Amino acid sequence: MENSRTHIAPPGSGTAWARAFSILYDPFLWAAELAGLRLHRKQLLTQARGRTVEIGAGTGLNLPHYPGDVTELILAEPDPAMRSRLQKSLSRNGQRARLADAPAEALPFPDGSVDTVVSTFVLCTVDAPDAALREIARVMRPGGQLLIIEHVRSDSPALVRWQDRLARPWRRFACGCRCNRATAELISACGFELEHACEASWRAMPPIVRPLIIGRAQKTAPSDAETEPQSAGQAQPASARSQLSGG
Ligand SMILES: C[S@@+](CC[C@H](N)C(=O)[O-])C[C@H]1O[C@@H](n2cnc3c(N)ncnc32)[C@H](O)[C@@H]1O
Questions:
Q1: Which residues 6+ apart lie within 8 Å of 160 measured at CB?
Q2: Are strands 70-76 and 50-55 parallel, antiparallel or unpaired?
Q3: What does the alpha-carbon distance between residue 183 and residue 185 come to, in Å, rounded to a whole number?
């Protein structure tokens, strides 16, 4: 059934800072894109296929990397300032894609209708990542895939202390982003198995957001996605991270 919940606006959406952030976003990431992120995006997105939904598509930095195997591309972006930049990127690239004003927690697609969901640096920002992951599981076809690049809570106790200390100011600066969120654990707790995943470093970015996971996740079993997961919160169970290999 298509989700008919009311629209959930991202935190800070519509403010002057959110507008400024959307303008500063590409220049802020410029060095990091050149230092390796662009290559990570390209390598990840070679796996995209079929009907593809990108959540929190931002300014459209993934757009140049979608392969021909993608038969339909839908870019879901709930923030109006980001969406307007996304529209400009699309026009500039002459690319065919549909824009949707939708948060990851309430995707306007029927159950089991999407082959690939893409999330790059979005699960750190959504207010309810467990709800977003359940929604991704709902729209995904059997055999569908979730492709992710996310920065995560560090394994290093020293860095984690800084991630926790700076979480609040970073969140204000980066429009809702939680630098200390244990996203790999959340993905597993919400009924996905992270496979072909690797850890990497987000070079040329502040250390608190450098630890990355990059990979592909599939639903472990349809019933898992329908049950209420335990909230992984900021906890640090070993299960999901131990599946990752160095990269
Ligand atoms: C750090 S940016 C990432 C942009 C892009 N995905 C990238 O790889 O550069 C986070 C994006 O998530 C969007 N966002 C915030 N809350 C969201 C939500 N609840 N659902 C989907 N996207 C959300 C923001 O508007 C923003 O575009």
A1: 153, 154, 180, 236
A2: parallel
A3: 5
Which residue shows structure tokens 């600066």?
A: 173
CA-based end-to-end distance of the chain: 38
What number of CA atoms fall less than 13 Å from residue 61's CA on the CB side? Answer: 23
Note the pLDDT tens digit of each residue in 222-246: 544 444 444 443 433 333 444 443 3
**What CA–CA distance (Å, rounded) separates 124 from 149?**
10
Ligand 1 pocket, 122 CB below 6 A? Answer: yes
Predicted confidence (pLDDT) per residue in 10-56, tens digit: 767 779 999 999 999 999 999 999 999 999 999 999 999 999 999 99
Q: Is the CB of 55 under 6 A from ligand 1?
A: yes
Residue among 26, 89, 125 to mutate when testing ligand 1 (max atoms within 8 A of CB)? 125
Q: Is the distance from the beta carbon of residue 56 to the nearest atom of ligand 1 less than 6 Å?
A: yes
